[in-house]
Structure formats: C-alpha cells, structure tokens
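Moderator note: this is an archived Q&A kept for reference. The question asked for a predicted structure of one protein chain; the sequence and the answer are reproduced below.
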Amino acid sequence: SGSGKTTLIDIILSLRNPTTGKVLYNSKYKYFSELITYVPQDNIIVDGTLMDNLVLGDDTLISNKEKSEIENILKCCLLYELVNKSNSGVYQRIGYGGVQLSGGQLQRLSIARALLRNVPILLMDEPTSSLDKKTSKELMKNVIDYSLKKCISLIVVSHDTSIFPLFKDNLDL
C-alpha cells in the first residue's frame, strides 16, 4: 500500500513488519510467507500455456501433484470445461497477457494457481470481481468446499455481498 501505513494485508503477506506486537507461526515454516498464498485483484499472467500459468515456473507443483488433483482444482475453479474443449488440454496457449481467456477465466486461473500451492492460508482480494453473480456463487462455494477438505483457511476481501452467506453457512457456531 502506497499510503505509508502498515495494513493487515501488508503484515500477512510479510511485506512489512508490525509496528507493535509479533507475528507468530509454526516453526516448521522458514518464512511466514510459506504459509500463505495471495490472489490479487489484478491477475499475473505469463505468455505461455495454461499449465505455465498454473505453476509459474515451479515445476515441482506438477511433479508433486497427481493429475487427478490438478483436475479437481480445475473443476473447483470452473476451468475444467475450458481444458476439455481444447485438444491441448492444460497445455493450450493462452496468449500474451492471457488474451485467449476472458477476465473471469483469468481470475479463476489465479485462484487455481493458489490452490495448487496447497498452503494453509489463502488470501483473496476481490476474487469474483470479473464474474457474474451465478458464477461467483458457484466458484466461491467450490473454493470453500475445497478449502474445508484441505484444511485451508480463507481470508476474502470482497464487495460482492452475494457471496457472504456462503461463508456464514459453513461456520460451525
């Protein structure tokens, strides 16, 4: 954040240290940032294939994941049909800046990339801003269900009030 103030997101992402107090986390992680994956509002896309954009150069993500797990993540993020339509599957080229995909598909690709990392905390900033209401609800329901199965904590910043009840429905109070 350019305001000079330290925000909670800055601290969570290890961009800044807290001015008071401490951030404590499991010592099995060398860095706090190994605990969290961030899905920004603006998607980061490289010129290459869908798979290139899922792993962003970290081929260990492919070797460590079974094909079925990648399929589960693509289904969760509503990208499986896109993959199945192409003869190249996940190796289809998506063009410079992802020009072959819609804004909503790019947003879902960013979420799939985050889920592929399989870390304990997923922080998403406006994850449904490029989606219609129906797709927003379906995607977030899937992400919540997937996160519950994988013990991933979700932190979601959103103005999309239509997704709020999905979180309440999954709270054990």
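Archived answer notes: The first strand starts at residue 36 and ends at 39.
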